[in-house]
């Protein structure tokens, strides 16, 4: 999967490096001059969605196809890509806050796990033409600038690592933009027959020649396919898709998010934290489970990845059945018992009776009778069926 992300990084070079360039807003890609009419059209499209946009700077990404636009909205930097038909392909808002407040927990966890001690340089939060949210994050790690792209859940999409000590020249940086299957050349589309299209990017060089990066799959096999300007297949790599294994991490009480601590203080004040775990799926926190105790009572609480309460489990102690013996009179006897006595002990006389109860449900009967001059102890089960009889001596 790392290989997949690396190839994505190559395919996304322009988008990711432009993240750094546009984040800086001082290094615009001036590879190609944009004519005034096109610049005005792109500016008008941006103005429709961002009426208060100012300082619009339009550049050409691919002649007569895709343009880039950097602009300000109430002093906040934005960047966008726009098609020649006037469709906004993507927009990003550049966050000025580098205190990590703009990052969701899943991204923070990924960065802290894989780049411990990193310095956050810039964050851009945006969406594509289908309103899918993504994040571009620029960090410095071991004196090296790294740009990472994440989706809305915090899943890593691509990584671009600048060579140490080498600052990219914006005039030489490649230009890349996303395309759908129908926008690929016909000869490339035909070569993708039998594949499930995932995504594609086009990279143009300074001479206008293009390289097509396509990601497609069949079954559970993901393919990275590269075509040249003429649509000739240059490279195809197949990698088995791997389902990320959920990771369980044990927690101490101090590791709990503040929102969970606040919930415990409000609802379980005085309870003692016993143990806890956090479930992480593909670098994203899925849930928290903790066990707390008080006065011999133990309960389990579950929270979602953001610390919102989900459920509580209170183990039930085994119930001790209520067993008792109760005296009864002749009228309390079930009819089956009366029928038996009338048949076997014709003319019997009731002396006393007793029923054994379990949680108030009859389990057995004892009936003391006289028959002639003799006394008998007659036993029946819970259904009134005869069990045994004993003659009193």
UniProtKB/TrEMBL annotation:
Keywords: Signal. Residues 1-19 form the signal peptide. This is Beta-lactamase-inhibitor-like PepSY-like domain-containing protein.
């Amino acid at each position: 999967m790392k290989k997949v992300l690396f190839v994505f990084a190559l395919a996304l070079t322009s988008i990711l490096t432009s993240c750094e360039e546009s984040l800086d807003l001082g290094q615009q890609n001036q590879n190609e001059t944009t004519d005034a009419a096109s610049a005005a059209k792109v500016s008008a499209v941006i103005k429709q969605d961002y009426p208060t946009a100012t300082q619009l700077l339009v550049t050409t990404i691919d002649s007569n196809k895709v343009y880039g636009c950097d602009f300000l909205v109430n002093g906040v930097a934005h960047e966008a890509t726009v098609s020649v038909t006037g469709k906004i392909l993507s927009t990003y808002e550049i966050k000025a806050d580098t205190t990590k407040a703009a990052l969701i927990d899943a991204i923070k966890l990924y960065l802290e796990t894989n780049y411990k001690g990193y310095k956050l340089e810039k964050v851009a939060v945006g969406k594509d033409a289908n309103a899918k949210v993504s994040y571009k994050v620029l960090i410095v790690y071991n004196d090296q600038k790294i740009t990472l792209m994440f989706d809305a859940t915090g899943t890593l999409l691509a990584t671009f690592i600048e060579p140490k000590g080498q600052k990219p020249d914006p005039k030489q940086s490649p230009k890349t933009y996303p395309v759908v299957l129908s926008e690929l050349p016909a000869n490339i589309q035909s070569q993708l027959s039998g594949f499930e299209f995932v995504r594609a990017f086009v990279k143009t060089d300074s001479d206008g020649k293009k390289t097509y990066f396509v990601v497609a799959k069949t079954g559970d096999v993901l393919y990275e396919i590269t075509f040249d300007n003429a649509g000739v297949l240059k490279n195809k790599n197949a990698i088995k898709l791997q389902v990320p294994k959920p990771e369980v991490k044990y927690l101490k009480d101090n590791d709990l998010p503040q929102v969970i601590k606040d919930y415990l203080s409000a609802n379980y004040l005085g309870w003692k934290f016993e143990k806890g775990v956090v479930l992480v799926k593909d670098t994203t926190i899925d849930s928290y489970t903790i066990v707390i105790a008080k006065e011999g009572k133990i309960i389990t609480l579950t929270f979602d990845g953001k610390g919102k309460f989900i459920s509580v489990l209170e183990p039930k102690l085994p119930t001790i059945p209520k067993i008792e013996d109760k005296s009864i009179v002749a009228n309390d006897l079930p009819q089956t018992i009366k029928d038996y006595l009338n048949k076997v002990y014709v003319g019997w006389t009731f002396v006393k009776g007793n029923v054994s109860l379990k949680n108030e449900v009859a389990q057995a009967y004892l009936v003391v009778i006289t028959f002639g001059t003799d006394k008998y102890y007659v036993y029946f089960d819970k259904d009134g069926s005869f069990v045994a009889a004993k003659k009193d001596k």
